[in-house]
Amino acid sequence: xxxxxxxxxxxxxxxxxxxxxxxxxxxxxxxxxxxxxxxxxxxxxxxxxxxxxxxxxxxxxxxxxxxxxxxxxxxxxxxxxxxxxxxxxxxxxxxxxxxxxxxxxxxxxxxxxxxxxxxxxxxxxxxxxxxxxxxxxxxxxxxxxxxxxxxxxxxxxxxxxxxxxxxxxxxxxxxxxxxxx
Length: 181
Prior knowledge:
The protein is α+β, with helices and mostly antiparallel strands.
């Protein structure tokens, strides 16, 4: 996989400094998986305070629907014609229907059996298992894949808790329909 970026430079004459030349950097970055590009502009120095996630999630485990002690009781289940067992479970991960689906069939999967998991604790192996769970679900669906793009949301990259939803990157798994044999 190759990460590619094109460095750019814009030269302007700055009226605040007697029309002195000023160089402004920017770059174009290319996503190695999708081929899409994004432009990175340096308008100002970027500084953010690191949020205190421990403080943000303190106490939210009492009502978090994705926590291991609640996930099987408060999340929906698939109808038998889609998934006979209702939900898929693999190790400490649970996959269930998305109540806000992107399409006719959507699923959400928790990625671990803990309420809060710092992003630095997510391993490549855990991510691979989570995407494997998603692929197993879509491969095993007893519904035709010819008319729908399925979507899969993996909750848990930073925190599985809805209280810090703004901090949760969501991954969408969009498998290509496979011909039935």
